[in-house]
Amino acid sequence: MFKTITLPRVTLRLITHKHGAALFGILNHPLVSQYNDYQTPLSQQQVKQLIQNDISGYYEGGVLRLAIEHNSNGQLLGSCGLYKINTDKQTAFIGFELHPNFWQQGIMQEVLLGFMAVMPALQLKHLYAEVSTHNQRSHALLIKLGFTPKCGVQNSDNSSLWYKLL
Hints:
Helix content: 25-40%
Mean pLDDT: 92
Order of helices and strands: EEHHHEEEHEHEE
Oligomer: single chain
Strand order of the largest sheet: 1-2-3-4-5-6-8-7
Largest sheet: 8 strands, mixed
Structural class: alpha+beta
Strand content: 25-35%
Number of strands: 8
Low-confidence stretches: none
């Protein structure tokens, strides 16, 4: 079972339906949606189903999506998570989004460092990220976190693959 992670500015906890309205706004924000892999605009029902799929995926062992909540007021700032968790190969994909009002403040770096610190307990050894080739902020963040580009791998959807050995 996942235990909530409290970091200096934010808390990471399992996503729930109470996060739906705020997540709807974040995922549909034009600066966020240009880089995500969801068909936007998303309806409130689609976000509700997305959260339900994440909850079900958590209990099935293939997904771990966390809400990023501000410590001072509990506001949802974004989310991060693991997808395509493969316990046999000890691999997973990491994904994240943050409301643009909180960009350029080091919050996502704090989140991912705190999140990756618990990865050994999840028995993961290899972490991947699939990021739009145009998302320079995410590329810079991944480099800071020790990810390296997977040489020559670019998908037909204009995304690149990054890799980290934990």
